[in-house]
Amino acid sequence: xxxxxxxxxxxxxxKIRIVGDNSRVITLPHIPSQLPRIGNIILRVxxxxxxxxxxxxxxxLMLFVDRHKNIQLQLLRHYDKISEYIPQSxxxxxxxxxxxxxxxxxxxxxxxxxxxxxSIVAHPDQTLLPKGSMRxxxxxxxxxxxxxxxxxxxxxxVDKNFVFNLDTVSEYVETPAMVHDPFYDNSLFQMKLQDLKxxxxxxxxxxxxxxGFFTYAELKLSIQEVYSNPDFETHHWTINVINWLAxxxxxxxxxxxxxxGERVIFPVSSNESKGLEDARFVKFTQDDxxxxxxxxxxAFNGHSILSxxxxxxxxQTFKIITLNGEGVKDKGxxxxxxxxxxxxxxxxxxxxxxNYIMFSDNLHFWHEATLIQEPQQPWEFVQIxxxxxxxxxxxxxxxxxxxxxxxxxxSIGAILLDLDDPTKIIARLExxxxxxxxxxxxxxxxxxxxxxxxxxxxxxxxxxxxxxxxACRIATVNLEGLFEKMKFAPKExx
Length: 494
Hints:
This protein is of the alpha+beta class. It has ten helices and 32 strands.
């Protein structure tokens, strides 16, 4: 094979350009925080004559029925959130319920501000494909009004000639139903309370009333029993922590009728109320050979950040998990696709500037971090971080990095970590693998090229990336050429 000498020969940009669509909207509750205002809305609707209510509802549905798959169901869900404030003597018709729900509902355009920071994994369903083709799922960060971020998806195929075909994106987008974990693990719950410094007499009494596995309802009942005990002084901060922990570990499930492109994971818990940012999906192989998908992401509540974990097997049901430990304090955590030497391994940033690695016996807890990479090249003098989970190759763990240089220019680089000891860098790319070209420089955040995860297909890297936070593209990278361009460390220095 002819030796590839330039980065332009190694990296090929595809013509695909994925941009946000303002017409993709979800419904959200739009409920006043003051109780009197809720009551006023209810009374105004109830004072309408049946004819007035029917006409107003008909006009409302006519405007919005084509924008949502089941608008009436969504309006009733929002009505249910305030149904306790309905006067007990009132008999409420379905029309009135729907109309009250409409006054307590708003549309939210999830991709109106930006669509960026993609990651890519092989689809769990690889059936009925032409020989040599692969089906994939891409996750993206969508940002709308108020700069609130959510996770959306695209799917498609790539054939043996590296021709990409993205599936048609539906005009609809749906949020899932939220379900609390059917069973919480008592031991794990206690460990998390201890890590949060909330393990005391109050929490011990509450948890000791529960079995080895317990339901959300059982937890609430145990808390209520402690509250109602006149002989015990409850520690209210501890109760708040327990409720926060239970509410932050939950499941969401999408309707069977939705396809992957219609699904959006929108903020649910308080610690992610202002956004779910930069999901890094990876297909993880467990000790028994079973495969599962994980994604680390940054939860933002408007004041502080918290790294969390998503778990799924089918991209229809997603389990949201809090991560604990001293090592969970910055953005950009990226899980290795399997255990290394019997331990989970995670890339991370601890100081916003350098790359670190962590190991743990428990996927939920991360403590000690080891520094593995500091900025060296001019294009990364400001800071570095990872661009997704490490990728296993016969040469080592391939880690795509991002570097920030002068004028806040973001570029993508690469390093190789030793397969057996990934604390050691065995090779580096001394020039950027990918930087913004002229057409990619303009956007919501200029001069930024960024990715949250790539994958290998037929000895090439499929690298989805965001261009200036306004659109996403796909590049292919010849792996042999990439390795040829990397500078390997002398063995005596390892």
